[in-house]
Amino acid sequence: MSGDDSRETTSSKVVGVRRLKEAMAKPASTRIFTVANQKGGVGKTTTTVNIAAALSMGGLRVLVIDLDPQGNASTALGVEHRESAGVYEVLMGSAQISDVIKKVAGFPALDCVSSNTSLANAEINLVSMVARELQLKAAIDEISANYDYIFIDCPPSLGLLTINAFAGSKELLIPIQTEYYALEGLSQLLETYSVVKKRLNPTLVLSTIVLTMFDGRTRLSNDVAANVRSHFPNELIDIPIPRAVRVSEAPSYNQTVMTYDPLSPGAIAYMQVAREIAERGKAKDEIVFDSNVVSINYKGGIA
Ligand SMILES: Nc1ncnc2c1ncn2[C@@H]1O[C@H](COP(=O)(O)OP(=O)(O)OP(=O)(O)O)[C@@H](O)[C@H]1O
Ligand SMILES: [Mg+2]
To answer: Architecture of domain 30-283 in CATH?
Structure first.
């Protein structure tokens, strides 16, 4: 663990609004990410909430959909979720998504659709529904225009909830923990991804891979990173998230690490990853024409 990760943090409540001086690039249209990996505890929720928080601090409008009955994303964002209607009611058709969107305190434009314990029944209750794989997509279509980024935090399984996320999003973000069994099970995830692409959502793209809980001192972490880099050179964001105490402490204060300890190594890494995601997705017409570097090529030459 790096030494500067042990500073005291006194604030337990987010006060005011966090905004970066340098705004992040806006995408041409709403980017909708499923954050999935059926392996448990690899950093799906941590990656979702911190990248979402960072993009919001960069001036973008962001929504997090907590699609995990554990409700960890809702907790980390400090959103009351146990007693209130959330994504379960939306999936079942008993609530409109716009009625269950909650504001996240401390950010300019960060919203959350929370989960509650009823969501644990969703897999069973969805089975008998018409268009059961497309319930979430229908809801997202109603509100996606209000956001630059939407992230769906999935449970550690490839059941109907995760399929709903795949069907309702445009991009897949896979967090990979840099540990021995990191790539185990990835083929199952990629298989599900290709089936969904074929049958439900042909435009879905695996665009982004983030390495989590990286320990640069170990050979193992570096080997896993090299392996992922060789398989996914374009998808990998080559800024590993370090294993860092502050990152794991933040949720118990109902915060992301972006507010809990913004200068800690984990927060800085997530900020850099968010900026890279925004750069990759920025509207192409933002490329500025620089008249100083125009060179005119005369053909034929002078006699
Ligand atoms: N960079 C990090 N450094 C230290 N701890 C971390 C880091 N990222 C995540 N953790 C911790 O690891 C645990 C698992 O992370 P997280 O909940 O994000 O994974 P998950 O994939 O969402 O899990 P689940 O499959 O249960 O939904 C949590 O206790 C979290 O605080
Ligand atoms: Mg999780």
So the answer is: 3-Layer(aba) Sandwich (3.40)
Q: Is 185 in the pocket of ligand 1 (CB under 6 A)?
A: no
pTM: 0.90
Q: What is the pLDDT of residues 173-230, one digit of tens each?
A: 999 999 888 888 899 999 999 999 999 999 999 999 999 999 999 999 999 999 999 9
What is the CA(28)–ligand 1 centre distance, in A? 31
Distance 200 CA to ligand 2 centre (A): 24
The rounded Å distance from CA 146 to ligand 1 centre is 29
Calculate Rg over the CA atoms of the chain.
20
Please give the number of the atom of ligand 1 that sits closest to the Cα of 153.
22
Q: Where are the domains of the chain?
A: 30-283
